[in-house]
Design a protein that fits this description.
The complex is a heterotrimer of chains A (107), B (972) and C (181). Chain A is built from two helices and six strands; from the N terminus they run E-E-E-H-E-E-E-H. Chain A is an alpha+beta fold and 107 residues long. Chain A has a single domain, classed as Folate-binding superfamily (Folate-binding fold, 2-Layer Sandwich). Chain A starts with a strand and ends in an 8-residue tail after the last helix. With 972 residues, chain B is an alpha+beta fold. In chain B, strands 9, 10, 13, 14, 15, 16 and 30 form a seven-stranded mixed sheet that branches. In chain B, strands 42-43-44-41-35-45 form a six-stranded mixed sheet. Chain B has a six-stranded antiparallel sheet with strand order 47-48-49-46-51-50. Chain C has four helices and eleven strands, in the order βββαβββαββαβββα. In chain C, the strands form two sheets. A six-stranded antiparallel sheet of chain C has the order 1-2-8-11-10-9. In chain C, strands 4-5-6-3-7 form a five-stranded antiparallel sheet, with helices on one face. In chain C, helix 1 packs antiparallel against helix 2. The chains are: A alpha+beta (107), B alpha+beta (972), C alpha+beta (181). Chains B and C meet through strand 9, strand 16, strand 40 and helix 23 of B and strand 7 and helix 4 of C.
Chain lengths: 107, 972, 181
């Protein structure tokens, strides 16, 4: 059972205190978008074996959504950070690159 | 015979005798005994029957690895099947009965399977019970199910309490033998917060039986000094009788504490499940001795050499006057010496090795024990107990050279480190040629959250069998004798509990099973309650040999938690009975109970379904409630309705994105019905929105939807539009809400008094703050029934009093409380949709004719893009219409509207389905709404609904408003 | 008008720790962030400073707890909620904020005794050995949301009103005599 540190309140919360929210850093496509764009946004979610960025909500805590970078194969957590960003922060990227030199980047 | 020795027994208290019973026979033991020790002390060598062949079985081991000696423990509400006698502590009054036999343990009819054993090889069920096909269901399966299974499931509810608890530490040490104690001390010395778990009631592990000293000190003195040292420290917690049974991600460990198994009924919880989160895990779980595979190795009296040693040293129990020791390693010599020291006879040590040298063999010889090297057991003699062994050369095919009379056989095929916990979370193993065993590979550990090793293994669990750091070599002996023919191999048991023999694994390999995982499932090797603790390595060695492969290449099956069986009660913990799950109750719940309400679950809420009166069926009650509300006055507890405040300069903009309609233009003091969709466009929730002030709205949601919709709002505000100035608050539970419904609704409010609720002062779809009967209220004039209706919110702490005021004042006006079913019928009579009835996650508002609630002007709202997808915009969608059955009957729930022809699967084509269907007491006939292809353009057409009974119901397509189409009743 | 009634009307249980439902307490959810007048507005109501992350500032029968980066829980005597809301509205006028009465949406329990923490250890995935004085921990108690903090030699636990009976059941089960950890 995972432990993720909520970046807002600092609680090292266990999985039962959190709710999963699937892939992070999605760009919303609304009216006017092409069928391909909408499909990619709505349905074509990443499911890598390895480095992954996810949304989690500290449901039983402060109620805030945050983002987590972790390895889906080893469950190593590279870091958590607030949700109000459109791409992973530089320090998280650097940490992942140090731990996973072969990593191709988050896109 | 097996018996109690006059002296010794380090774990028993001879001044505290206890009485217990086995199959009704009264037996005597001592405090400190295990049940197995108590049985052996009373010469109860035969303790059960095997699973498949019903062979007589005795105690093999002295710990949790025991495959045979499982019993039913206790009775009634405390009956537990499959309890291991070897880990069950004896207490006064303990009742045990043996399993898997009929009519008695000594005379068992099922043993006929034993004589037919050669017709029941591996995969027997799969091969035999195939034809004729119907026979499986009606003949074979019922027979097998009756015959299968060891213990009997209890029929009474568990009389005991269970609980769970959370614990946190830096270092968790599992196993309090010498290695575990040292690890705990080292961690404690370093200042870590340490928890030390031991599955046994006492700490020390095998050391007091196997060793004389530790670090130059007498072993018992070393252990007790260590125990006092650790117990005195603030940063160390020792828990005995607690088995760490599972290792999970990120340092999470589950452990089962047997709090009062040995003191049943003393009021304490029976078991306590510990949920431990630790920085690092040290497993010091020791090793389990392996049996040897020789013919007749399952006859009662054949035991692990270490177990024989345990019974003699720990419990002063002799397994028999004469014990033959058979081994491939030195450790079994300790057993011979222990027996000798207890004054018992060891006629011979049969050592499969060519030579036996070193201190232990020398000591045995010096003690006058006959040591035969290069020898094996050709066959154990005896039926329900051992009478002797036939000796042969290990190198040959089993030609008998000598027969030795004995009552017990102590065997040792080497040791298997307990690597289970290391493996649970992905730790890898490596084959150690020296000790012929799998050991943890420290280079491939299970990983923690930071990528570091999560588990460290110490002591014999890591392969350091004699704790010297350089264990002595143990040459593998997988079959005894080496060239044993089929007659012998078919009597060599690998898995005692599931009756799997050497010959079965060999047959599986001949039949093409090359994977250890498949062989396991085909032969059932290792699939019993002991999960192959004794059998797995021996079995896969046989498989490797049959395949001409090496053991490491064949590999092991996957180790999964739990290490030992955990009772369901411990896993359930407190979640039983009244607190099985949280039941949400409104402030008026007790009053509804007193009024005889029949409740139904709505999410976790319990809501009155109806209020039946004496002699009334639920249906009659519902119909009375509908008619009374339509004619007089109904009161509904609507407190469960979701209420979310949305406030801020951008709140209007936000709600315009959330709802399909426009909420930003809603005037202060007014209400508007709104729909919410998910991003795919499907309808997700609905409710009335009230504009409270310039920047505040109150959104009502469905009863089941409040938390979900609040989370949905927060998701968008936090993750997408985080620069919008909007705050939300879920105030659902702040208010009790009462719907006052019916022609006399206004009169009731006027009787309560305090504010003007006239048509002029409070028109339809408006709200007003004020007081009623002195209660601070907010009154919404909204209607979900088509009647004149007010929904009145009061602070929850006044809810009960306000409900009472309404029912009392309402008496003269014909008021009756009504439940959710009445609500459903009244809304269906008016053609109002219900989330969850008309919607199922595949329905868009346009399907329901709710286009009027969708803004055409807005550039965007959640779901708008989804609804533009071609298949959702198609004119061929099933759309909502009403139905009148031609005969006035009620269309069954779930019915489909049939169409001509059949589909590719030969099923009848369909063109729609019913979504809401009720008997309308108002109209005195069945009414229904449903989705029908091209529905709105097919008014007046007759369609057919199928029924579960097989027939059809004909109905005429109509509009969805069955009652008071012009809304005259609510607009008064 | 009637007297306000708490969810369980003051139910109690005496086990190895004592369990009491208290209240009703006046409670206000205040949502605001980066608002200049916030310290002053809160002080005017609770007499406390604005709590730091995950802290609760207690002042007699008043308190202010940190619930999230933009949410505070203000505790005042039940009868003073309306006045407190008015005070907040006045002090925060023109600032983006939300202050709302949640007194009746909650149930509040006290768990007291030497081993009070053991009761909570059975229900919440919280390391109570490391829970600091004045720390407000939001978590779950078995299957429902709860907030708890150490105060006056015991713990105060807040949950939703509708599940008060469930939480009382949990606390009663966990505090059974003889089941100390």
């Amino acid at each position: 059972m995972l432990i993720l540190e909520c970046p807002y309140c600092g609680v090292k919360a266990e999985e039962t205190e959190l709710s999963p929210g699937y892939e992070a850093h999605l760009k919303r496509f609304g009216p006017g978008s092409s069928p391909e764009e909408f499909e990619a946004y709505m349905f074509a979610r990443k499911n890598p074996k390895g480095v992954h960025f996810e949304r989690w909500r500290h449901t039983y805590g402060c109620g805030k959504w945050f983002l987590a970078a972790r390895c889906t194969a080893t469950l190593e957590v590279f870091g958590t950070y607030p949700a109000q960003v459109s791409e992973p922060p530089a320090d998280i990227i650097a940490k992942i690159q140090a731990r996973r030199p072969d990593w191709k980047g988050y896109k | 015979m097996s018996t109690r020795l006059a002296r010794g027994g380090r774990l028993i208290n001879r001044t505290a005798p206890v009485e217990f019973s086995f199959n009704g026979k009264r037996l005597k033991g001592f405090q400190g005994d295990t049940l197995a020790a108590g049985l052996l002390a009373n010469d109860q060598v035969l303790v059960g029957r095997s699973f498949k062949y019903h062979r007589p079985r005795g105690i093999v081991a002295s710990g949790p690895e025991e495959p045979n000696a499982l019993v039913n423990l206790g009775s009634g509400g405390r009956l537990e099947p499959n309890q291991r006698t070897t880990t069950t502590e004896l207490f006064d009054g303990l009742q045990a009965t043996s399993q898997n036999h009929w009519p008695s343990l000594d005379f068992d009819v099922g043993v006929v399977n034993n004589y037919a054993a050669r017709f029941m090889p591996a995969g027997f069920y799969y091969k035999t019970f195939i034809h004729p096909r119907p026979a499986w269901k009606h003949l074979f399966e019922p027979f097998i199910r009756r015959a299968a299974g060891l213990g009997k499931a209890p029929t009474e509810s568990d009389a005991d309490r269970y609980e769970q608890a959370y614990a946190f530490c830096d270092v968790l040490v599992i196993g309090a033998g010498v290695a575990g104690l040292k690890a705990a001390k080292a961690a404690a010395d370093a200042g870590s917060r340490v928890i030390l778990l031991e599955q046994a009631p006492v700490i020390g592990g095998r050391a007091p039986v196997d060793q004389t000293e530790v670090d130059g000190q007498p072993v018992e003195a070393w252990i007790s000094a260590m125990e006092s040292d650790l117990a005195a420290r603030d940063n160390v917690t020792i828990r005995t009788r607690t088995c760490g049974f599972g290792v999970y991600d990120h340092g999470y460990v589950l452990a089962d504490e047997r709090v009062s198994d040995h003191t049943p009924g003393d009021g304490r919880p029976k078991h306590r499940l510990w949920r431990i989160r630790t920085g690092k895990i040290v497993t010091a779980t020791g090793a389990i001795e392996r049996p040897l595979s020789f013919a007749g190795n399952d006859i009662p009296g054949v035991m692990l050499a270490s177990a024989v040693r345990d019974y003699v040293v720990n419990y002063a129990v002799s397994p028999g006057d004469r014990t033959v020791v058979v081994t491939n390693n030195d450790s079994a010599y300790q057993t011979a010496l222990a027996l000798k020291a207890a004054g018992l006879d060891v006629p011979a040590i049969l050592d499969a090795r060519g030579a036996a040298t070193g201190p232990l063999p020398e000591a045995a010889r010096a003690a006058g024990i006959r040591v035969l090297t290069g020898k094996a057991i050709a066959k154990v003699k005896g039926g329900k107990r051992v009478t002797g062994v036939a000796v042969c050369a290990q190198a040959g095919e089993g030609a008998v050279q000598e027969e030795i009379a004995c009552e017990a056989v102590a065997m040792s095929g080497g040791w298997s480190p307990v690597v289970h916990l290391w493996s649970h979370c992905g730790g890898k193993l490596t084959w150690d040629e020296t000790i012929s065993a799998f050991i943890p590979d420290p280079k491939r550990p299970p990983l923690n959250h930071d990528g570091s090793a999560m588990v460290e293994v110490v002591g014999s669990a890591a392969g350091d069998l004699d704790l010297t750091g350089s264990p002595k070599a143990i040459p593998p002996v997988w079959v005894m004798p080496q060239g044993a023919p089929i007659q012998l191999r078919s009597k060599m048991w690998l898995d005692y509990q599931n009756d799997v023999k050497v010959s079965d694994v060999q047959l599986a390999s001949r039949e093409g099973y090359v994977s250890v995982e498949h062989t396991k499932r085909y032969t059932t090797l290792g699939m019993a309650t002991d999960q192959g603790k004794l059998s797995n390595i021996n079995g896969l060695a046989i498989l490797a040999d049959s395949l001409g492969s090496e053991i490491p290449q064949v590999g092991t099956t996957t180790f999964r938690p739990p290490y030992t069986p955990v009772t369901i009660g411990a896993l359930a913990g407190e979640s039983r009975g009244e607190i099985f799950q949280p039941l949400r109750m409104t402030p008026m719940h007790a009053q509804h109970e007193a009024a005889g309400a029949y409740f139904e679950p709505v999410g976790l809420w319990r809501r009155p379904y109806c209020f039946p009166r004496a002699g009334e069926t639920h249906e009659q009650a519902v119909h009375r409630e509908v008619l009374n509300t339509r004619q007089n006055l109904g009161l509904l507890d609507a407190s469960t309705l979701g209420k979310i405040i949305v406030k801020g300069p951008d709140a209007g903009k936000f709600l315009d994105m959330l709802y399909t309609g426009v909420m930003s233009t809603l005037p202060i003091g007014k209400c508007r019905y709104g729909l919410m969709c998910n991003e795919q466009g499907f309808l997700s929730d609905d409710g009335v929105v009230a504009r409270i002030d310039e920047d505040t709205w109150l959104c009502h949601t469905t009863s089941g939807g409040a938390d979900r919709i609040h989370a949905w709002m927060e998701d968008w505000l936090q993750c997408e539009w985080w620069d919008w100035k909007v705050y939300t608050a879920n105030v659902t539970e702040q208010y009790a809400q009462v719907a006052v419904v019916g022609p006399n609704a206004r009169k009731l409010l006027q009787v309560l008094g305090g504010m003007d609720v006239s048509k002029e002062a409070l028109p339809f779809m408006q709200w007003s703050d004020g007081t009623l009967a002195g209660f601070p209220v907010r009154v919404y004039r909204i209607s979900f029934s088509g009647e004149l209706s007010y929904e009145i919110a009061v602070p929850a702490s006044h809810g009960a009093a306000f409900w009472k005021a309404c029912t009392q004042a309402g008496k003269a006006l014909g008021a009756m409380p009504y439940g959710t079913e009445c609500l459903h019928i009244m809304r269906a009579e008016k053609g109002f949709i219900m989330i969850g009835d008309e919607t199922d996650g595949t329905v868009i508002p346009q399907d329901l004719g709710l286009d009027w609630a969708i803004s055409k002007k807005k550039a965007d709202y959640l779901g708008k893009r989804g609804q533009e997808r071609t298949f959702l915009a198609s004119p061929d969608r099933w759309k909502l219409v009403g139905f009148d059955t031609l005969d006035g009957s009620v269309i069954p729930d779930g019915s489909y509207i049939i169409a001509d022809g059949v589909n590719a699967n030969g099923q009848r084509n369909v063109q729609g389905r019913v979504t809401s269907t009720y008997y309308s007491p108002t109209l005195k006939r069945g009414i229904a709404m449903g989705l029908l292809k091209h529905g709105p353009s097919r008014m007046g057409e007759i369609v057919e609904f199928n029924t579960a009974a097989g027939g059809t119901v004909k109905a005429r397509v109509r509009d969805t408003v069955f009652f008071d189409k012009d809304g005259e009743k609510q607009n008064v | 008008m009637s007297e306000p009634v708490s969810a369980l009307n003051g139910a109690s249980f005496q086990g190895f720790a004592s369990i009491r439902e208290i209240g009703p307490l006046g409670m206000i959810t205040l949502r605001a962030k980066g608002v200049k007048a916030l310290d002053k507005a809160v002080k005017a109501v609770t007499g406390t400073k604005l709590p730091a992350t995950r802290r609760i500032e207690v002042n007699g029968d008043r308190a202010c707890g940190w619930m999230s980066p933009d949410e505070y829980l203000l505790i005042v005597p039940y009868a003073e909620v309306a006045a407190s809301l008015a005070s907040l509205a006045n002090d925060l006028k023109g600032e983006h904020h939300l202050a709302v009465d949640v007194s009746d949406a909650r149930a509040v329990f006290r768990v007291e005794g030497d081993k009070a923490a053991d009761v909570l250890r059975k229900l919440s995935p919280v390391d109570f050995d490391k829970l600091e004085p004045g720390e407000l921990r939001r978590t779950r108690a078995a299957q429902v949301a709860a907030a708890m903090w150490a105060q006056d030699g015991g713990f105060t636990l807040v949950c939703f009103r509708s599940v008060a009976a469930y939480v009382m059941g949990l606390l009663t089960h966990s505090a059974q005599p003889g089941s100390e950890l």
